[in-house]
Design a protein that fits this description.
Elements (H helix, E strand, L loop, with lengths): L6 H13 L4 E4 H11 L11 H13 L3 E4 L4 H12 L7 H12 L4 E3 L3 H4 L6 E3 L6
Parallel strand pairs: 1-2, 3-4
């Protein structure tokens, strides 16, 4: 996407991950956030339209290389447990729900540029795509 400074690092990381025989998992929450992010005129000079962002998310969700990760009913209670145990506030709810979804789906490694938001979850290995060679 034009204007996304880390796009190339993310793309290269994904290509290398697949090339090395690893699967790519994507959580439904991530695609919701992608739609929100890519349509934000405050972040991009030329943001995607809603239809473009929806199409992009749909393509990612339907890609043959992707394992689709959806929260189960148990994720709600695990999210609340993590929020309480780790003493996290209201601005951490969505990240915590994503972490709980990944844990429930047996995902052990998370690639993100927001590593500081996920390092608190001891069950996840957090990787920053631009730091991987």
């Amino acid at each position: 996407m034009d204007g996304a400074p880390r796009h190339e690092a993310a793309r290269q990381f994904l290509v290398e991950t697949v090339k090395n025989g690893h699967q790519l998992g994507i959580a439904v929450q991530t695609l919701h956030e992608q739609i929100h992010f890519c349509t934000d005129a405050r972040r991009f000079e030329k943001p995607l339209s809603m239809d473009e962002a929806i199409g992009c998310s749909r393509s990612l969700w339907d890609a043959s290389e992707v394992v689709r990760l959806s929260p189960s009913a148990a994720v709600f209670h695990r999210t609340l447990e993590l929020l309480s145990t780790l003493k996290l506030g209201r601005k951490r709810i969505l990240d915590t729900a994503l972490a709980a979804t990944l844990e429930a789906c047996a995902v052990e490694r998370l690639a993100t540029f927001n590593n500081q938001d996920f390092e608190i979850f001891g069950f996840l290995e957090v990787v920053v795509p631009e730091d991987v060679h």
